[in-house]
Every structure is written in C-alpha cells, then in structure tokens.
Amino acid sequence: MLSYTERRSAAALKPHLECLWAVWDERPREGRRSERVVPDGCPELIVHLGDPFSRLLGRRWTRQPRVFLAGTLTRPWMLRPGRRVRTLGARFRPGAAAAFFDLPMDSATDREVTLARLVGQTKARAFHRRLARARGREAGWAGVEAWLLERLQGGSGRSGAAKPAVDLVLRARGQVRIDELARRLGWGRRRLERAFARDLGIGPKLFSRIVRLNGVLATLGETERARAVDLALDAGYFDQAHLLRDFRLLAGRRPLAAPAGDGEMSRHFTHPERLRTLFAGE
C-alpha cells in the first residue's frame, strides 16, 4: 500500500546525492509488511513527517528518530512502517555525506544518528518544522534541497578524501584488489583505510564486497533477485569472508517465487536500473 517515488537532485547537489525519495501513505493502516534494506554503501538523511518507521534490533522493534542520518550499512536492516507514512529521504553517494556533516562516518556505521546530534537541537527542530509545513512530496523535496544547499555553500562539511577510491571501486563493480586500488591512486594502504573509515565508515575491502553483491543483483530478474538476497543472507554473507562465491552459485539458480517479505522500497533499492546508475556515478 506504500507509494515510493524519487527524483534526481538539483545540479549543484548531483555530485553528492544519488536522489531524493519519498514513501507515502497518509491513510492509517495497521500491520504493514516489513521492508528489508540491503547494504549499498549509500548513507541517507531521513525525515519522518508521519509516524516513524521501526527497526528490528535483535528480537525487538525499535522506533526510529524523526530526523536522522542513516550511516553506511554493513548488514541488512529490517524496517516496519508506522500507521501513517509520510517519509522523505536524501540518498547520498558513497562517501559524499562528508560534504554536509563534519562527522567521522565510522561513528555512524549501522546506526541512526539524530540530526540534533549533527547540527544541534534548535536547527534540527527548525528543519523538521519547515518540512512539516510543506504541502506534498515536491514541496518537501524542495525544502530538503534548499537546506542541503545552504549547508554545502556554508562549508558545514568537509571535502571527501575517499572519493577517487570510491569512484574506482564503483566503476570496477568491486572487482579490484585493495593493494591494486592503493597502487592506482599512489596511496599507501593505511591512507586508503583511514579515508574509507572517515568518509564511509567501513573499510575498502568491505565496500568492494558490498559493491560486488549489488553488481550481481543488477544482473538478475526481479524474482531471482529477491530470492538470491534471502539465500545469501540466510547463509551469513555479510559475516563470512568467502560467501561471495556461494552467493554467485545460489543467485544463478532460478527460484519458483519471490519471498513475501520484500516490499515496495526493497524492490526498488535492488532494481538493476538503479544499481547500474549508481555504478556509473550518474
């Protein structure tokens, strides 16, 4: 019952944002289906104008903040929408959140960091009120863009040191060894690790694995894609070093039906067109 839409950002933000998105359903509903978000290396600024989503932590559903930065994920998140859904998001390119928030991203990995912690309580509340007054998604997106542009032009963040390395990994779809990556850039391995920790919150090796996973998903049909994610995660892909090989084998087997757990957002995030655009940096 959720309506997911997105659009590209203004030209000045395009080097930093993959897109602006919204998920909407103002009609109150109980028992909404859960959504699974697969790691893709992209942090997000998320604003809940309706009822916040909840995230599964262990066996317990925990309510998300109203406005927060979702850091780089190293494992899937299971999310459950609230009764009344009006949520806006800005999806940053890998490593690009540094331009807006002077925050070491390794302190945000797999976490929701409240906007109040990033910019102060007063500014965070003013931002949320500004968006709450917006009429509809387009007006909300315009408000998010204006706020991000103010921060970009005001120099609130810092330059992303990891960008050249991130771009190389994306273009190679993760098929590049870390020593080779450092050699191409003329960097030492330690410098590479530090840049990734600060700008992405994860190391270059894990980022490459995440990109490779999404590269495989970009080659599959919808039914195969949904089932392949289930098989890989059930096998512990994000916790074991050599599961990529097994994932490729499992993903190549055509299943009979997609799992019931995938929702509107989940299907879009792993859509081949979206992933190919991400790899191309467009």
CATH architecture of the largest domain: Sandwich
Query: What global shape is seen?
Result: globular
CATH class of the largest domain: Mainly Beta
Cα-based radius of gyration, to the nearest Å: 18 Å
Descriptive notes:
The protein is of the alpha+beta class and 282 residues long. The protein folds into 2 domains: 3-153, Jelly Rolls (Sandwich), CATH 2.60.120; 163-280, Arc Repressor Mutant, subunit A (Orthogonal Bundle). The protein has 11 helices and 10 strands. It has helices spanning 115-119, 121-132, 136-153, 163-171, 178-185, 189-199, 204-217, 222-234, 243-251, 264-269, 272-280; strands at residues 3-7, 17-25, 35-37, 44-48, 54-57, 60-63, 67-70, 77-80, 85-92, 112-114. It has a 6-stranded antiparallel sheet with strand order 1-2-9-4-7-10. The longest helix has 18 residues, at 136-153.
Strand and helix map with partners:
Elements (H helix, E strand, L loop, with lengths): L2 E5 L9 E9 L9 E3 L6 E5 L5 E4 L2 E4 L3 E4 L6 E4 L4 E8 L19 E3 H5 L1 H12 L3 H18 L9 H9 L6 H8 L3 H11 L4 H14 L4 H13 L8 H9 L12 H6 L2 H9 L2
Antiparallel strand pairs: 1-2, 2-9, 3-8, 4-7, 4-9, 5-6, 5-8, 7-10
